Amino acid sequence: MSTVRSEIDELAGVPVFGEVTPGALLEQQITRDRLLSNLLVLFAAIALFLSSIGIYGMLVHAVDRRRYEIGMRMALGADGRTVVRESLLPVVAGIALGMAAAFAATRLVEGILFGVSGNDPWTIAGAALIFS
Hints:
single chain; mainly alpha; 132 residues
């Protein structure tokens, strides 16, 4: 830096101060973006945690409400697979509606995605597995 500073001083006669390397300049420019992406990850993790607790609570409530009904049906000879199939129907419907909403919402977030497309099947399948 001292050589560059002296050459600029000789050619232009202008004092030089506050010089930075290209790497440091790039680091200064992306600091804000990095902070925003870290905040986004933090808030996404909080949203994932809260929604998982909500889904778990709703599932526990639904099972608790139907506990006696399920017990009676099993006592009267209902097949366990039938009861499970009826219980999984809302889960499958929720996954289907959620995937449709996810595909519809990708147009809104596609501009801020880096390294992945908006309709990445692995990401959507992973999200469906996390919530189911």
